[in-house]
Amino acid sequence: MHEPQFSHDFIRTLETLFSWRRDVRHFKKDPIPDVILNHLLSIACMAPSVGLSEPWRFIQVKTPKIKTEIYDLFKTTNKEAAQNYTSEQQILYNNLKLSGLDDAPHHIAVFSEENPTQGMGLGRQTMPQTTAYSTVMAIFSFWLAARAYGIGVGWVSILPPQHVKEILKTPDHWNFIAYLCVGYPQFTQDTPELENKGWEQRNPKRKEWIIR
């Protein structure tokens, strides 16, 4: 197989894809065709992984009762999280839409197997957490591919991991990494919603590199 050559136009388009890869919280109700969603999950599994361990485990959450339990858990946890801010910050916090659980047509829970036999432990003796890092790489691969298809992804982090594991009845050795809302976005933007809402601004110093 010949090594592909990527054109300057492709590289510029790829950079645009990175710019428009945003966390989506406002979704249309229209479902994604199964063939497309399954294809995106297959792309996610092309991600690099430590020792070729492929530790990611994806669960498509389709049962309405389970979706409701997850959403109720989010609302409870989100209300508790709001109490950690001052009154002024709390008002701003409460006006943020921090998940698309109420309207996203697809929910995907992502777990990472803590110590998979696949890969035979290569690269994990000194940094066992690299299995979780590998799973995050798979999530990001899914995210970029979804955006290229005009599909939005939102990562819901305001969920207590153990409660999610109990609701989804997952094995003890699976670590909860992410709960994703997936669907066609109501609108798109190239800046983070938290920036647009005045919660936080990008730090220009993050574009500086340390040299030793």
Q: Summed up, what is this model?
A:
This protein has 212 residues and is α+β, with helices and mostly antiparallel strands.
Structure write-up:
- The structure is a single chain.
- The chain is an alpha+beta fold.
- The protein contains seven helices and four strands.
- Helix 3 runs antiparallel to helix 6.
- The N and C termini lie far apart (39 Å).
SSE layout and pairings?
Layout: H1 8-19, H2 34-44, E1 56-61, H3 64-82, H4 87-94, E2 106-113, H5 130-148, E3 152-156, H6 161-168, E4 174-183, H7 193-196
Antiparallel strand pairs: 1-2, 2-4, 3-4
Helix pairs in contact: 2-5, 3-6
Write out the strand line-up for the largest beta sheet, numbering strands in chain order. 1-2-4-3
Low-pLDDT runs: none
Number of helices: 7
Shape label: globular
> What proportion of the residues form beta strands (DSSP E)?
5-15%
What class do helices, strands and sheet pairing give?
A: alpha+beta
Q: Would you list the SSEs in sequence order as H and E? A: HHEHHEHEHEH
Strand count, sense and closure of the main sheet? 4 strands, antiparallel
* DSSP E strands, number: 4
Binned, the helix content reads 25-40%
Q: Gyration radius, to the nearest Å? A: 19 Å
N- and C-termini, Cα separation:
39 Å
Q: Write down the overall mean pLDDT.
A: 96
